[in-house]
Design a protein that fits this description.
Number of helices: 11
Distance between the termini: 52 Å
Strand order of the largest sheet: 2-1-3-4-5-8-9
Bound molecules: NADP nicotinamide-adenine-dinucleotide phosphate
Strand content: 5-15%
Number of strands: 9
Radius of gyration: 18 Å
Shape: globular
Helix content: 40-55%
């Protein structure tokens, strides 16, 4: 029998990872809102991983409720993560999946590019995703920050630009880049300013070139996403708090 895994939150991502892990032969123990985590922890005190598959807004509420036995075994997959974010929540050495596939309610898993995964249970998750035909690869822990920055730039730039009044609601990544390039470039620069502030380091402009190439990796991908307004609001709130100059984001 392969090592058991706990998945906390069975939405789109939790469901996709549960599918991959079950297919790979791992018993999967779900924690939903109706579950008592302490009861599951009593039955599964040493899972290979406790993957927190809740959204950005729920993470800070869930982390303090994680049973002691699972604290050193946490996995994360949220957009907007950075090492400073999870260390701020008291999580020191998590397994982190920088998810580059999309899973929506009525749409199967759609990879944009290979998903980098680092941390103690990285090999297990990579192998499970690959078993389902979802490209993934293992990265060292110290590469996670750069991988997270790239994903954060992509998701904020795509989601926020697609909220502009100038842009059609169902715009694809390719249409966004080809028809609204100056808008995309302004928002991407502001997103880079925010990431530089969050990481406390200057970040190279080469990340922007790479970002535009990624837009074309999955050209038909819808740019907006249901979390777009909340993501833009969080970015602007952070910029206000830090006094950052983000004119393109403010003009949206
Ligand atoms: N979906 C994607 O394509 C995708 C891609 C990359 C990254 N991500 C990231 O993955 C994260 C999850 O996204 P998602 O699309 O899977 O969202 P989702 O479908 O809304 O799933 C989140 C799940 O967490 C559950 N949950 C929230 N708080 C909980 C709690 N206290 N206890 C137990 N369960 C709880 C929610 O339950 P309720 O339904 O009851 O609220 C929901 O089932 C987000 O940070 C997102 O940015 C998603």
């Amino acid at each position: 029998m392969k090592a058991p895994v706990v998945i906390w939150g069975l939405g789109q991502m939790g469901g996709a990872f549960a599918h991959a892990l079950l297919y790979a032969g791992h018993p999967v123990h779900p924690v939903t809102r109706a579950t008592d985590p302490a009861e599951v922890a009593a039955a599964v005190p040493e899972p290979a991983l406790c993957l927190l598959a809740v959204g950005e807004n729920d993470l800070a509420d869930v982390v303090p409720r994680v049973p002691e036995a699972w604290r050193g075994r946490l996995g994360l997959l949220q957009n907007e993560l950075l090492p400073g974010v999870y260390r701020g929540l008291g999580i020191e050495d998590p397994t982190v999946a920088v998810v580059w596939f999309e899973k929506k309610k009525t749409v199967p898993i759609t990879p944009v590019q290979s998903t980098p995964i680092g941390g103690p249970a990285a090999a297990l998750l990579v192998s499970a995703l690959e078993g389902l035909g979802v490209p993934a690869h293992q990265v060292q822990r110290d590469a996670l920050r750069d991988e997270l920055v790239k994903k954060n730039l992509y998701i904020l730039t795509a989601n926020a630009t697609a909220l502009s009044r100038e842009v059609a609601e169902d715009v694809t990544m390719e249409q966004l880049l080809r028809a609204h390039r100056p808008l995309v470039e302004g928002v991407a620069r502001d997103a880079l300013t925010i990431q530089a502030s969050l990481t406390g380091e200057a970040l190279p402009d080469s990340l922007l070139k790479e970002l535009y190439e990624t837009f074309l990796a999955d050209p038909h991908h819808r740019a907006r996403g249901r979390s777009a307004p909340a993501r833009l609001a969080r970015a602007l709130a952070y910029a206000d708090e830090q006094g950052l100059d983000v004119p393109a984001l403010r003009a949206l």
